[in-house]
Amino acid sequence: MPATPSVSPAHPRPPSAPLPDFCSLPVLFALLVVGALTVTLMWLAPGNDGDLRDYCIAVLFTSWLSMLLTVALCKLRPWMQRLPWLWPYAAVWLLLVVTVGLSATLLGWIDHNLGAGLSPASRFRFVRDSVLATGLLGAGLLRYFYVVAQWQARVAAEAQAQVAALQARIRPHFLFNSMNAVAALIRVDPDAAERTVENLAELFRAALGSDQTSVGTLGEEWALVDRYLEIEALRLGDRLRVERAIDVPDDLPLPRLLLQPLVENAIRHGVQPSRAGGTIRLGGRRVPGGVEIVVDNPLSDAPATPGNGHGLRSVRERVRFHFGERATVRAETDDNRFVVTLFLPESAHARTDRR
Has this prediction a pTM greater than 0.70? Predict the structure, then answer.
Protein backbone atom coordinates (compact mmCIF):
# COMPACT_ATOMS: atom_id res chain seq x y z
CA MET A 1 0.00 0.00 0.00
CA PRO A 2 1.60 3.30 -1.05
CA ALA A 3 2.49 5.65 1.74
CA THR A 4 0.36 8.72 2.02
CA PRO A 5 2.46 11.83 1.67
CA SER A 6 2.41 13.92 4.78
CA VAL A 7 1.11 17.41 4.46
CA SER A 8 2.66 19.94 6.80
CA PRO A 9 0.14 22.26 8.40
CA ALA A 10 0.11 25.77 7.08
CA HIS A 11 1.82 28.30 9.28
CA PRO A 12 -0.68 30.64 10.87
CA ARG A 13 -0.48 34.16 9.60
CA PRO A 14 1.19 36.40 12.18
CA PRO A 15 -1.07 39.11 13.58
CA SER A 16 -0.86 42.55 12.07
CA ALA A 17 0.65 45.33 14.19
CA PRO A 18 -2.04 47.99 14.71
CA LEU A 19 -1.37 51.31 13.02
CA PRO A 20 -2.36 54.62 14.61
CA ASP A 21 -5.29 56.59 13.28
CA PHE A 22 -3.54 58.74 10.68
CA CYS A 23 -6.79 60.60 10.02
CA SER A 24 -6.71 62.20 13.47
CA LEU A 25 -5.51 65.70 14.24
CA PRO A 26 -2.91 64.58 16.85
CA VAL A 27 -1.01 62.64 14.16
CA LEU A 28 -1.00 65.66 11.83
CA PHE A 29 0.10 67.86 14.72
CA ALA A 30 2.94 65.45 15.55
CA LEU A 31 4.18 65.48 11.95
CA LEU A 32 4.04 69.28 11.81
CA VAL A 33 5.92 69.65 15.09
CA VAL A 34 8.59 67.09 14.18
CA GLY A 35 9.14 68.73 10.78
CA ALA A 36 9.37 72.23 12.24
CA LEU A 37 11.74 71.13 15.01
CA THR A 38 13.99 69.34 12.53
CA VAL A 39 14.25 72.41 10.29
CA THR A 40 14.91 74.62 13.34
CA LEU A 41 17.71 72.38 14.63
CA MET A 42 19.33 72.21 11.19
CA TRP A 43 19.11 75.98 10.83
CA LEU A 44 20.66 76.54 14.28
CA ALA A 45 23.42 73.96 13.71
CA PRO A 46 27.01 75.30 13.69
CA GLY A 47 28.30 76.00 10.18
CA ASN A 48 24.90 76.69 8.69
CA ASP A 49 24.96 79.97 6.78
CA GLY A 50 21.29 80.01 5.85
CA ASP A 51 19.29 83.15 6.43
CA LEU A 52 15.76 83.65 7.75
CA ARG A 53 14.31 83.39 4.24
CA ASP A 54 15.73 79.90 3.79
CA TYR A 55 14.37 78.89 7.20
CA CYS A 56 10.85 80.06 6.35
CA ILE A 57 10.92 78.26 3.01
CA ALA A 58 12.06 75.04 4.70
CA VAL A 59 9.30 75.29 7.33
CA LEU A 60 6.68 75.81 4.61
CA PHE A 61 8.06 72.85 2.65
CA THR A 62 7.96 70.50 5.67
CA SER A 63 4.46 71.71 6.63
CA TRP A 64 3.19 71.01 3.12
CA LEU A 65 4.85 67.58 3.21
CA SER A 66 3.26 66.83 6.61
CA MET A 67 -0.24 67.55 5.31
CA LEU A 68 0.41 65.58 2.11
CA LEU A 69 1.72 62.59 4.07
CA THR A 70 -1.21 62.72 6.50
CA VAL A 71 -3.72 62.57 3.65
CA ALA A 72 -1.83 59.74 1.95
CA LEU A 73 -1.49 57.72 5.16
CA CYS A 74 -5.17 58.30 6.02
CA LYS A 75 -6.30 56.97 2.64
CA LEU A 76 -3.86 54.04 2.47
CA ARG A 77 -4.11 52.93 6.11
CA PRO A 78 -6.84 50.26 5.53
CA TRP A 79 -4.73 48.62 2.82
CA MET A 80 -1.50 48.73 4.85
CA GLN A 81 -3.27 47.40 7.95
CA ARG A 82 -4.03 44.15 6.09
CA LEU A 83 -0.31 43.34 5.87
CA PRO A 84 0.99 40.76 8.40
CA TRP A 85 3.33 41.23 11.34
CA LEU A 86 5.30 44.53 11.27
CA TRP A 87 4.93 45.06 7.54
CA PRO A 88 2.31 47.81 8.05
CA TYR A 89 4.96 49.97 9.71
CA ALA A 90 7.48 49.10 7.01
CA ALA A 91 4.94 50.18 4.38
CA VAL A 92 4.36 53.47 6.20
CA TRP A 93 8.13 54.12 6.43
CA LEU A 94 8.60 53.35 2.73
CA LEU A 95 5.72 55.66 1.83
CA LEU A 96 7.28 58.47 3.88
CA VAL A 97 10.68 58.10 2.24
CA VAL A 98 9.36 57.77 -1.32
CA THR A 99 6.92 60.67 -0.96
CA VAL A 100 9.55 63.02 0.45
CA GLY A 101 12.11 61.93 -2.17
CA LEU A 102 9.72 62.54 -5.06
CA SER A 103 8.54 65.85 -3.60
CA ALA A 104 12.11 67.09 -3.10
CA THR A 105 13.02 66.03 -6.64
CA LEU A 106 9.99 67.80 -8.09
CA LEU A 107 10.63 70.96 -6.06
CA GLY A 108 14.29 71.01 -7.10
CA TRP A 109 13.41 70.55 -10.78
CA ILE A 110 10.77 73.30 -10.74
CA ASP A 111 13.03 75.69 -8.84
CA HIS A 112 15.95 74.99 -11.21
CA ASN A 113 13.84 75.76 -14.28
CA LEU A 114 12.23 78.88 -12.79
CA GLY A 115 15.42 80.14 -11.17
CA ALA A 116 13.58 81.21 -8.02
CA GLY A 117 16.34 80.10 -5.67
CA LEU A 118 13.98 78.25 -3.31
CA SER A 119 16.16 75.13 -3.02
CA PRO A 120 19.93 74.59 -2.63
CA ALA A 121 22.09 74.78 -5.71
CA SER A 122 22.90 71.05 -5.57
CA ARG A 123 19.65 69.22 -6.30
CA PHE A 124 21.20 65.83 -5.59
CA ARG A 125 22.35 66.92 -2.14
CA PHE A 126 18.92 68.44 -1.40
CA VAL A 127 17.10 65.21 -2.31
CA ARG A 128 19.65 63.05 -0.48
CA ASP A 129 19.49 65.07 2.74
CA SER A 130 15.67 65.16 2.63
CA VAL A 131 15.43 61.38 2.17
CA LEU A 132 17.99 60.62 4.90
CA ALA A 133 16.34 62.97 7.40
CA THR A 134 12.90 61.51 6.62
CA GLY A 135 14.19 57.94 6.97
CA LEU A 136 15.72 58.57 10.38
CA LEU A 137 12.91 60.71 11.76
CA GLY A 138 10.25 58.43 10.28
CA ALA A 139 11.78 55.38 11.94
CA GLY A 140 11.86 57.13 15.31
CA LEU A 141 8.31 58.45 14.98
CA LEU A 142 6.93 55.08 13.90
CA ARG A 143 8.70 53.42 16.81
CA TYR A 144 6.94 55.88 19.12
CA PHE A 145 3.55 55.15 17.50
CA TYR A 146 4.19 51.40 17.82
CA VAL A 147 5.05 51.62 21.53
CA VAL A 148 1.97 53.78 22.19
CA ALA A 149 -0.27 51.31 20.31
CA GLN A 150 1.11 48.37 22.31
CA TRP A 151 0.63 50.27 25.57
CA GLN A 152 -2.97 51.14 24.68
CA ALA A 153 -3.67 47.50 23.79
CA ARG A 154 -2.31 46.35 27.17
CA VAL A 155 -4.32 48.98 29.04
CA ALA A 156 -7.51 47.95 27.23
CA ALA A 157 -6.86 44.26 27.95
CA GLU A 158 -6.20 44.93 31.64
CA ALA A 159 -9.33 47.07 31.93
CA GLN A 160 -11.45 44.41 30.26
CA ALA A 161 -10.02 41.70 32.53
CA GLN A 162 -10.70 43.84 35.60
CA VAL A 163 -14.29 44.47 34.54
CA ALA A 164 -14.81 40.75 33.87
CA ALA A 165 -13.44 39.90 37.32
CA LEU A 166 -15.74 42.41 38.99
CA GLN A 167 -18.75 41.05 37.11
CA ALA A 168 -17.79 37.51 38.10
CA ARG A 169 -17.80 38.51 41.79
CA ILE A 170 -21.21 40.18 41.54
CA ARG A 171 -23.10 37.45 39.67
CA PRO A 172 -23.09 34.80 42.47
CA HIS A 173 -24.29 37.40 44.99
CA PHE A 174 -27.10 38.55 42.70
CA LEU A 175 -28.22 35.02 41.81
CA PHE A 176 -28.14 33.92 45.45
CA ASN A 177 -30.46 36.75 46.53
CA SER A 178 -32.84 36.08 43.66
CA MET A 179 -33.14 32.37 44.43
CA ASN A 180 -33.93 33.17 48.05
CA ALA A 181 -36.83 35.33 46.88
CA VAL A 182 -38.22 32.45 44.78
CA ALA A 183 -37.90 29.98 47.65
CA ALA A 184 -39.86 32.30 49.95
CA LEU A 185 -42.73 32.57 47.45
CA ILE A 186 -43.23 28.93 46.39
CA ARG A 187 -45.35 27.90 49.40
CA VAL A 188 -47.09 31.23 49.96
CA ASP A 189 -48.14 32.19 46.41
CA PRO A 190 -47.39 29.67 43.61
CA ASP A 191 -48.68 32.00 40.89
CA ALA A 192 -46.42 34.78 42.09
CA ALA A 193 -43.55 32.30 42.26
CA GLU A 194 -44.19 31.37 38.60
CA ARG A 195 -44.09 35.01 37.55
CA THR A 196 -40.94 35.44 39.59
CA VAL A 197 -39.27 32.54 37.81
CA GLU A 198 -40.11 34.15 34.47
CA ASN A 199 -38.62 37.43 35.62
CA LEU A 200 -35.56 35.62 36.92
CA ALA A 201 -35.12 33.92 33.57
CA GLU A 202 -34.71 37.32 31.91
CA LEU A 203 -32.43 38.55 34.67
CA PHE A 204 -30.29 35.41 34.48
CA ARG A 205 -30.04 35.76 30.71
CA ALA A 206 -28.66 39.28 31.14
CA ALA A 207 -26.40 38.36 34.07
CA LEU A 208 -24.90 35.34 32.33
CA GLY A 209 -24.85 36.80 28.81
CA SER A 210 -21.77 36.60 26.63
CA ASP A 211 -19.47 39.55 26.00
CA GLN A 212 -21.03 40.05 22.56
CA THR A 213 -24.34 40.94 24.22
CA SER A 214 -22.96 42.88 27.18
CA VAL A 215 -24.11 46.19 25.71
CA GLY A 216 -27.81 46.85 25.29
CA THR A 217 -29.98 49.93 25.54
CA LEU A 218 -31.33 52.04 28.37
CA GLY A 219 -34.85 50.82 27.61
CA GLU A 220 -33.76 47.19 28.02
CA GLU A 221 -31.99 48.09 31.25
CA TRP A 222 -35.11 49.76 32.68
CA ALA A 223 -37.09 46.64 31.72
CA LEU A 224 -34.65 44.46 33.67
CA VAL A 225 -34.88 46.86 36.62
CA ASP A 226 -38.70 46.61 36.50
CA ARG A 227 -38.49 42.80 36.60
CA TYR A 228 -36.16 42.99 39.59
CA LEU A 229 -38.45 45.48 41.36
CA GLU A 230 -41.42 43.19 40.75
CA ILE A 231 -39.57 40.37 42.48
CA GLU A 232 -38.68 42.57 45.44
CA ALA A 233 -42.23 43.99 45.61
CA LEU A 234 -43.58 40.49 46.21
CA ARG A 235 -41.20 40.15 49.12
CA LEU A 236 -41.49 43.65 50.63
CA GLY A 237 -45.07 44.53 49.70
CA ASP A 238 -46.16 48.10 50.37
CA ARG A 239 -42.88 48.85 52.07
CA LEU A 240 -41.30 49.30 48.63
CA ARG A 241 -42.38 52.37 46.68
CA VAL A 242 -40.84 53.58 43.40
CA GLU A 243 -40.97 57.00 41.76
CA ARG A 244 -39.79 57.58 38.20
CA ALA A 245 -38.82 60.82 36.44
CA ILE A 246 -37.09 59.64 33.27
CA ASP A 247 -36.65 61.84 30.19
CA VAL A 248 -33.90 59.98 28.31
CA PRO A 249 -34.25 58.10 24.97
CA ASP A 250 -34.70 54.36 25.41
CA ASP A 251 -32.22 53.62 22.59
CA LEU A 252 -29.29 55.05 24.55
CA PRO A 253 -26.50 52.38 24.48
CA LEU A 254 -25.83 51.05 27.97
CA PRO A 255 -24.00 48.01 29.39
CA ARG A 256 -26.36 45.33 30.64
CA LEU A 257 -27.02 45.12 34.38
CA LEU A 258 -25.42 48.49 34.99
CA LEU A 259 -28.35 49.99 36.92
CA GLN A 260 -29.66 46.82 38.59
CA PRO A 261 -26.84 46.70 41.21
CA LEU A 262 -27.64 50.30 42.17
CA VAL A 263 -31.33 49.49 42.61
CA GLU A 264 -30.42 46.37 44.58
CA ASN A 265 -28.21 48.40 46.91
CA ALA A 266 -30.97 51.01 47.31
CA ILE A 267 -33.43 48.32 48.45
CA ARG A 268 -30.95 46.47 50.61
CA HIS A 269 -29.61 49.51 52.48
CA GLY A 270 -32.47 52.01 52.23
CA VAL A 271 -35.80 50.14 52.19
CA GLN A 272 -35.28 46.68 53.67
CA PRO A 273 -33.92 47.74 57.11
CA SER A 274 -36.83 50.09 57.78
CA ARG A 275 -40.17 48.77 59.05
CA ALA A 276 -41.99 51.53 57.20
CA GLY A 277 -40.01 50.91 54.05
CA GLY A 278 -39.15 53.77 51.75
CA THR A 279 -39.32 55.28 48.29
CA ILE A 280 -36.71 54.69 45.62
CA ARG A 281 -36.41 57.39 42.98
CA LEU A 282 -35.23 56.61 39.46
CA GLY A 283 -34.37 59.62 37.30
CA GLY A 284 -32.85 60.38 33.95
CA ARG A 285 -32.37 63.61 32.03
CA ARG A 286 -30.23 65.25 29.39
CA VAL A 287 -27.54 67.62 30.64
CA PRO A 288 -24.91 69.66 28.76
CA GLY A 289 -22.46 67.20 27.23
CA GLY A 290 -24.29 63.99 27.98
CA VAL A 291 -26.91 62.17 30.02
CA GLU A 292 -27.44 62.01 33.78
CA ILE A 293 -29.06 59.00 35.49
CA VAL A 294 -29.96 59.11 39.19
CA VAL A 295 -30.85 56.34 41.67
CA ASP A 296 -31.51 57.45 45.24
CA ASN A 297 -32.97 55.89 48.35
CA PRO A 298 -33.75 56.99 51.92
CA LEU A 299 -31.17 56.63 54.65
CA SER A 300 -32.54 54.18 57.18
CA ASP A 301 -32.07 54.61 60.93
CA ALA A 302 -32.01 50.84 61.39
CA PRO A 303 -28.71 49.06 60.77
CA ALA A 304 -28.49 47.78 57.21
CA THR A 305 -27.06 44.47 56.12
CA PRO A 306 -23.31 45.04 55.72
CA GLY A 307 -22.11 44.86 52.15
CA ASN A 308 -18.78 44.38 50.44
CA GLY A 309 -19.05 47.39 48.11
CA HIS A 310 -18.81 45.30 44.93
CA GLY A 311 -21.99 46.76 43.43
CA LEU A 312 -21.01 50.43 43.39
CA ARG A 313 -17.37 49.60 42.60
CA SER A 314 -18.37 47.48 39.63
CA VAL A 315 -20.61 50.24 38.28
CA ARG A 316 -17.71 52.71 38.47
CA GLU A 317 -15.34 50.34 36.70
CA ARG A 318 -17.82 49.41 33.98
CA VAL A 319 -18.77 53.05 33.35
CA ARG A 320 -15.11 54.01 33.06
CA PHE A 321 -14.41 51.05 30.77
CA HIS A 322 -17.34 51.64 28.39
CA PHE A 323 -17.55 55.45 28.41
CA GLY A 324 -14.02 56.66 29.17
CA GLU A 325 -12.54 58.96 31.78
CA ARG A 326 -15.11 61.73 31.23
CA ALA A 327 -17.87 59.54 32.64
CA THR A 328 -18.42 59.78 36.39
CA VAL A 329 -20.28 57.92 39.13
CA ARG A 330 -20.91 60.12 42.15
CA ALA A 331 -22.33 58.84 45.45
CA GLU A 332 -23.39 61.34 48.13
CA THR A 333 -25.97 62.03 50.83
CA ASP A 334 -28.52 64.78 50.29
CA ASP A 335 -31.47 65.62 52.55
CA ASN A 336 -31.37 62.29 54.42
CA ARG A 337 -31.15 60.34 51.16
CA PHE A 338 -28.33 58.42 49.51
CA VAL A 339 -27.98 59.58 45.89
CA VAL A 340 -25.96 57.87 43.14
CA THR A 341 -25.56 59.97 39.98
CA LEU A 342 -24.15 58.64 36.71
CA PHE A 343 -22.90 61.07 34.07
CA LEU A 344 -22.43 59.47 30.65
CA PRO A 345 -20.77 61.71 28.03
CA GLU A 346 -22.75 61.91 24.81
CA SER A 347 -19.73 61.46 22.54
CA ALA A 348 -18.85 58.08 24.06
CA HIS A 349 -22.16 56.14 23.94
CA ALA A 350 -21.19 53.32 24.19
CA ARG A 351 -17.81 51.84 23.49
CA THR A 352 -18.39 48.41 22.03
CA ASP A 353 -15.18 48.18 19.99
CA ARG A 354 -13.07 47.50 23.09
CA ARG A 355 -14.76 44.34 24.03
Answer: no
